[in-house]
Design goal:
Layout lengths: L2 H24 L2 H4 L6 H16 L3 H21 L6 H19 L8 H26 L3 H17 L7 H25 L5 H24 L10 H10 L10 E2 L13 E2 L4 E7 L5 E6 L1 E2 L4 E2 L8 E3 L16 E11 L12 E5 L5 E4 L6 E4 L5 E12 H5 L8 H7 L8 H11 L5 H14 L3 E2 L13 H9 L1 E2 L1 H14 L4 E7 L3 E5 L5 E6 L3 E9 L3 E5 L10 E3 L7 H4 L12 H7 L14 H8 L2 H20 L1 H13 L7 H16 L9 H12 L3 H14 L4 H20 L1
Parallel strand pairs: 1-2, 12-20, 13-14
Antiparallel strand pairs: 3-8, 3-17, 4-15, 5-6, 7-10, 8-12, 9-12, 10-11, 15-18, 16-17, 18-19
Length: about 725
């Protein structure tokens, strides 16, 4: 066997071991995530490593991998013919929406197809890194240690069992480490080692590793030296208190909100599925009494209304005719049965075949079914579109005295500095709407952070909102929504705390008008509603990373478009992430709208974490392009010089070829003439092209012959050597 064949055999063996090691990273996904079909990812890794082994040209590699990714996403999520324009339209529509979520930091709203796309890209980068570590650096220890840690941690803290996996990882890892050490030693000490001796060394290593693994597997072992932590962690997560007295909760809907705060554990259990025409928030109830630690309902809420299904719903206060509404219908299928129903805003009818009554609490607006619960039902409702002009026309809050006192209630324990802050935020605003928006925007302007793990719990007489506003400045929806309400009430603005769920996770497009969403415990959420006299309760969203799903717009009939053009970018502040991303800051508050920069609007939306993530990705891509430049840069040179008719083209192209040969490992030695160097290159490459090219180059350089016709004669030889050294 020739040295070239031996090298190919060893390389194939290394790539095979790398594939087995990467496969171990994918095996646990079925047990620790909701990933069902890992086969497509395994195939993608195998193809990526095979392309690296075959040294396929870069452009073809990119084409093949991209096709596999798109084809896999099509099969997994869209189930439409791959070459049909309908699926391409749906794919790019989802891509735009998810990119908007990315820049608005609403990462939890990524669709499954986009998450898979990101995972494919991660695997693409990982296969390149493995190629770089194994074939160029010939070192794998760091990645091997990370693999062992990954497997053992999952075995300890998740349902995944690594009993056989750890054996495979040890055997594959030790084989890789041994082979790479052998390759490094062979390059320095034994560059011409025969095939028989190579195989003797490889087989000896394989037998040694197999014997060691077998001995370790069957040898007697000590019992576990410390107890399994998983039962403790489960008990810890389900109990009321955890470390340092903080509340440790599982995210989801709960009845008791009297003591808010503390970290929570995520839970992706699906609560219900909904077929809707448009995504929106889902209500369960509202609460009106703030205690300084959490929320309760007022004592005089004993009155109940009884509604019958399939009849017009009259228990809730309606919006006025100043609010534009669109009639919608949704179908709800409960996975977790509750005694209450979950409904959109402005419920108009509940449709069900079950023999139940709907018992409505007018204070909390909680709708309970009796007897029993509804497993599936339809709701008819109205989605609002609020006119900002009408909201801004209201100068001060107006409400019946009893209701006003209820919705501006605050305990005496609220510190004075909270009330002072509310006055500072709202005092210079001319109308009620602007005051509310000022409070809503306060958290973004002052760098409050969305956090679910390190969330404090007030102790003693400490106020929940005061702690959040002035000390921790981090928390989740309960912190943001409660803080906004306390600030509003401190300014005399009636408001209430609403509990429910966000839009959920997009699953599939049911038909042209309807989509299916899964709403999980992770989507449990709270937000704010403010009362505007003559309009009704209007929702607001203060939580960082979330956007108000309802429409707010100016009445363009009342605006002088030409005179007010610079104001248009500020009109609709309640836009969804897709609108923000696509529109950006169109006018920028300047008459020179043509000079507005979309890049600036994106940068403004980025946090430092997002900036460093993008910068790191660009740096990694740049490193990959730089490391692989010998394989693709020749395409650039061909485009620049192959058909050039400039006098200097021959000289520039020849110098570029010298640099390419240097990268290939055929450097020109000091004192070596061009002819001697050309013969050396031809002997190394098995050709005569370099000598032909150099002969014409010397004629153009030293005899002053016409360089353009000589370049035309030599371009094929130049192109041949470029391609040869790029492979």
């Amino acid at each position: 066997m020739s040295q070239e064949q031996l090298k190919s055999f060893t390389t194939l063996l290394l790539y095979g071991l790398v594939f087995l090691l990467l496969w171990e990273w994918l095996r646990p996904l079925k047990d620790v995530t909701d990933t069902e079909r890992i086969t497509v990812f395994v195939v993608f890794i195998a193809v990526g490593l095979l392309l690296s082994f075959l040294q396929i040209r870069l452009w073809l590699t990119v084409l093949i991998k991209s096709t596999i990714i798109l084809f896999s996403i099509n099969i997994l999520y869209f189930q439409l013919p791959f070459f049909k324009k309908e699926w391409w339209g749906l794919f790019f529509e989802e891509l735009q929406i998810n990119v908007a979520y990315l820049f608005s930091q609403n990462w939890l709203s990524f669709t499954p197809s986009f998450r898979s796309l990101l995972f494919f890209i991660l695997l693409w980068l990982l296969t390149y890194l493995m190629h770089y570590w194994v074939m160029i650096q010939k070192r794998i220890l760091f990645f091997y240690i990370m693999t062992v840690i990954y497997i053992t941690v999952l075995d300890t803290f998740t349902p995944y069992s690594a009993t056989t996996s750890i054996i495979r990882v040890v055997m594959v890892g030790f084989l890789l480490l041994g082979l790479l050490h052998f390759e490094r030693t062979k390059q320095v000490e034994f560059p011409r080692l025969s095939f028989e001796k190579n195989m003797t060394w490889i087989l000896s290593l394989a037998v040694l590793v197999a014997m060691s693994a077998t001995l370790g597997f069957y040898s007697p072992k000590l019992k576990p030296q410390w107890p399994d932590p998983v039962p403790y962690l489960k008990l810890f997560g389900q109990s009321d208190t955890g470390v340092m007295g903080q509340l440790v909760q599982k995210v989801g809907y709960g009845v008791n909100d009297s003591r808010l705060g503390g970290p929570f554990i995520e839970d992706s259990t699906v609560v219900f599925s909904a077929k809707v025409e448009q995504s929106h928030y889902w209500r369960v109830e509202s609460k009106d009494v703030y205690t300084g630690k959490g929320w309760e309902t007022s004592e005089d809420d004993g009155v109940r209304f009884v509604q019958q299904p399939n009849q017009a719903f009259t228990a809730f206060e309606k919006w006025s005719n100043k609010v534009k509404v669109t009639d919608k219908q949704a179908t709800v299928t409960m996975n977790i049965v509750y005694p209450h129903i979950t409904y959109p805003v402005q419920l108009t009818q509940v449709i069900s075949d079950e023999p139940v009554e709907l018992i409505v609490n007018p204070v909390t607006e909680r709708v309970v079914t009796s007897p029993g619960s509804l497993q599936s039902y339809q709701v008819e409702y109205q989605l609002p579109s609020f006119i900002i002009d009408d909201l801004q026309a209201i100068q001060d809050p107006v409400m019946e005295l009893e209701a006003y006192e209820r919705y501006t209630q605050l305990p005496n324990s609220v510190p004075e500095r909270v009330r002072n802050l509310a006055f500072e935020i709202t005092s210079n605003k001319p109308n009620l709407y602007d005051k509310v928006k000022a409070v809503e925007g306060y958290f973004v302007a002052n760098d409050f952070k969305y956090e679910t793990k390190e969330v404090a719990v007030p102790t003693g007489r400490q106020d929940y909102v005061d702690q959040f506003l002035f000390e921790t400045k981090q928390g989740y929806c309960d912190n943001f929504s409660t803080a906004m309400i306390v600030l509003l009430r401190s300014a005399g603005i009636p408001s209430r705390w609403v509990k429910g769920y966000t839009e959920g996770e997009f699953i599939e497009r049911y038909d042209d008008a309807t989509s299916t969403y899964d709403i999980t415990n992770n989507n449990a959420h709270s937000w704010v509603e403010v009362y505007f006299e003559g309009i009704g309760w209007v929702p607001f969203e203060p939580t960082r990373g979330f956007s108000n799903p309802f429409d707010f717009s100016y009445d363009l009939n009342n605006i002088d478009i030409e005179a007010s053009a610079p104001m248009i970018p500020g009109m609709n502040t309640e836009r969804d992430p897709m609108q923000e991303f696509m529109e950006g800051d169109i006018g920028g508050g300047s008459d020179n709208s043509g000079e507005s920069n979309w890049f600036t609007s994106i940068v403004d939306k980025l946090s430092w974490e997002g900036f460093f993530l993008i910068a790191g990705s660009l740096a990694l891509m740049s490193l990959i392009l730089f490391r692989t430049r010998r394989r693709w840069i020749f395409i650039v040179w061909l485009l620049m010089y192959k058909y050039s008719k400039k006098e200097t083209s021959f000289f520039n192209a020849y110098n570029i070829l010298l640099n390419q040969l240097k990268l290939y490992g055929l450097s020109k030695r000091e004192g070596q003439t061009l002819r001697e160097y050309a013969i050396f290159v031809d002997q190394s490459l098995g050709t005569t092209k370099m000598s032909e090219l150099t002969s014409n180059y010397e004629r153009a350089l030293y005899r002053n012959d016409q360089s353009v016709p000589l370049w035309k004669q030599s371009v094929n030889a130049w192109q041949y050597i470029l391609r040869k050294t790029a492979s």
